[in-house]
Amino acid sequence: MNNKTYHIILFLFFCQILAAQDFAGTLLVNTQPLEQPSDQIIKEAGADDIAEGFILLDAATLSYTTTEQNIFNAAVSNCSANNYRYGVYMHAVNLPAGMTIEARLNNTGSADLSGNLVGGVLATLLQGIFGARGAYPRGGFGAWFEIPNNANNALLIYEFVGCRQGMTLDFRVKASSRLGGGIINSSNNLQLVYTVRGKSLI
Amino acid sequence: MKEYIIPFLQVMIVATCFMGYGQETDFTPQTINANDPNTYAGNASVTPIGLTQSVVAPPGDQRINSPSINLQPIQLVDVEPEAAFAGSSSLSNVEAGEAISVGGGNIEDSDLWLNYTFRAAAFENAQISVYSVGTPLPAGMSIQVQIINSTTMNGYYGNNVANPNTNPVTISSSPQSLVYSFSSSYSGDGIGTGYQLKYTINNPGMEAIPADYQIIYEIQTQ
């Protein structure tokens, strides 16, 4: 193989990498029921239960994968090439009055490395820019962030790099005593909205 | 000359890959408009020969979950101030549910406050009843309790105002309503909030209260 051929192959190689930047993302989320444990209620008569709150560990599990179109216009999974940084934002819809929900990253999950041959090279190139594959809690581990009841101000909870599986969130729910007990969502239709946003590059 | 051209192109290609990177720093932006897909759905496009036309944000995604909420019912009632008591002519230090021992004659005390926290199991209302357990009082002796004041300080009375029974209630082994129907709510904790109680003990025979005699305040659902 002469130098010219080598350079043409290298050129096409980078073209392939560039073509691989259309990372259509797929977010999967499983949120557990928000059930208050019987030992996490207010203990002092007269006080509001909102002062106590209850914590649900690993209450939501998130996975994010990407697909791309290769040079043959075929959709392929290419998580190994995806080394971009993403933000996970949350907001609530129909959050009952007298209730707040806070979230924090607990388990950072694991990298999804299913993908193609050039992914490792691209990952190496981009790692210095977006950080190593992983999940990173905003404000450090343990910091809680109150989920707003407003889609216009969905709040960043954490960021991650590349495709990841098994990322979990803890929730801390503070509910006033004036909210009726039992299953109350049937009348309030609470929605938790998870939005993953890729980092802007231009 | 041509030996410089291809390496130059390679450098330019790689530079194009990274052009504009670093426009955002980690953990920014801290809020987005999640109603606008443009804030998270990137629009990178690919030319027929495989070159990207522009380098933009990689697309994101959005999912909605509707988890159920299941809150525990709460029924807590207490009399403040809380302290152990024995042998005083005042009831101000009596803890709800504990044995009472008093001297002879008639005694009045108005320094006790009834606090409660109530969360319904569903949407039922509740009332607070008072009754006694243990050995009955000696003949001729009686204890009355009366709500003489109520306040919402630090509390929340819900849609229904808390309905105090302001009449004197002579305590017996049968539950009697001290606070009528109310919904999920709380009175506030401590002295000066909730219901101010006035105790009147009639004890003309200078009898002792049985050691196991107790006054019970109880939230009862309706």
- Strand segment tally of chain A: 13
Indicate the proportion of strand residues of chain B. Answer: 35-45%
Q: Major beta sheet of chain A, specifics?
A: 7 strands, antiparallel
SSE order of chain A: HEEEEEEEHEEEEEHE
Number of strands of chain B: 12
Query: Which of globular, elongated, flat, extended, rod-shaped describes the shape of chain A?
Result: elongated
Q: Work out the radius of gyration of chain B.
A: 35 Å
The most extensive contact between chains is: A-B, 92 and 82 residues
Shape of chain B: rod-shaped
Brief summary of the model shown:
Chain A is α+β, with helices and mostly antiparallel strands and 202 residues long. Chain A is built from three helices and 13 strands; from the N terminus they run H-E-E-E-E-E-E-E-H-E-E-E-E-E-H-E.
Describe the structure.
The complex is a heterodimer of chains A (202) and B (222). Helices cover 16% and strands 41% of the residues of chain A. Chain A is built from three helices and 13 strands, in the order H-E-E-E-E-E-E-E-H-E-E-E-E-E-H-E. Chain B contains one helix and twelve strands, in the order αββββββββββββ. In chain B, strands 4, 5, 7, 8, 10 and 11 form a six-stranded antiparallel sheet that branches. A three-stranded antiparallel sheet of chain B has the order 9-6-12, with no helix packed on it. The longest helix of chain B has 17 residues, at 2-18. Residues 14-22, 43-55 and 84-90 of chain B have low confidence and may be disordered. The interface between A and B is large, with 92 and 82 residues.
How would you summarize the topology of this molecule?
The complex is a heterodimer of chains A (202) and B (222).
Chain A: H1 3-19, E1 24-31, E2 34-35, E3 54-69, E4 75-77, E5 85-93, E6 99-105, E7 110-111, H2 119-130, E8 134-137, E9 145-146, E10 154-161, E11 164-175, E12 182-183, H3 185-188, E13 191-198
Antiparallel strand pairs in A: 1-3, 3-4, 3-11, 5-10, 5-13, 6-9, 6-11, 7-11, 8-10
Chain B: H1 2-18, E1 31-32, E2 61-65, E3 69-71, E4 74-80, E5 105-119, E6 126-133, E7 142-151, E8 169-170, E9 176-182, E10 185-186, E11 194-203, E12 214-221
Antiparallel strand pairs in B: 4-5, 5-10, 5-11, 6-9, 6-12, 7-8, 7-11
